[in-house]
Specification:
- The protein contains 5 helices and 4 strands, in the order H-H-E-H-H-E-H-E-E.
- By secondary structure, it is an alpha+beta fold.
- It has a 4-stranded antiparallel sheet with strand order 1-2-4-3.
- Helix 2 crosses helix 5 and helix 3 runs antiparallel to helix 4.
- The longest helix is centred in the middle third of the chain and has 21 residues.
- The protein binds flavin mononucleotide.
Amino acid sequence: MSTEVEIFEKVVMQRRSVFQKDYLPERIEDEVVAKMLVMADRAPTHKRTEPWRFVVFTGQGITKLAKFQSELYKKVATADGSFREDRYLNLLNKPAESSHIISVGMKRDAAHSIPEWEELGAVFCAVENLYLAATAFGLGGYLSTGGITNFAEAKEFFGLGPEDRLCGFFHLGKIKTIETPLSKRKPMEEKVSWVKD
Ligand SMILES: Cc1cc2nc3c(=O)[nH]c(=O)nc-3n(C[C@H](O)[C@H](O)[C@H](O)COP(=O)(O)O)c2cc1C
């Protein structure tokens, strides 16, 4: 095997979701995050619509995000009777545990030339590139699709229109060592079949 393949395999096999409990309080250099986003931008895209949209929050930006999402949750959840104080406090306080939080959006092209599911597929390819880049840089990261991800009222804050989709939030932090083991996978035979003859 060539060295390139060995390096790639190592990064892919070590990729994992690393959560806030393993993050150090130090901030990642913005230049590193910018490089990760250039790698995300290399994702495949049908008809080259490049539907991924990112907003990077760090420093005071994280405070702004925390205020926005907790207040939006309070408004929406109070109106429909589902409000929970613990969820509100989580949305307000948890963001500060990440160095950077990247909102991940899917922008529909004006002509809707591609079915939505394909555009979402392209966006999640970009997310995988973020995961791989985080691994290669020795950083912790994971995608969250909870909180206000599915709130239609949230879209505008992230530069998205009514036809677009907010797809989640990619959290990032510096880590000392990753203490959690690699997540398990079910046997390949359940997921792959070969046709040869
Ligand atoms: C589409 C998608 C949505 C996810 N949403 C969440 C989430 O809301 N909260 C969370 O803790 N992890 C979320 N994750 C991360 C998964 O929990 C994680 O990928 C899974 O546990 C497997 O672990 P691994 O990434 O280390 O292999 C999401 C991952 C994907 C691909």
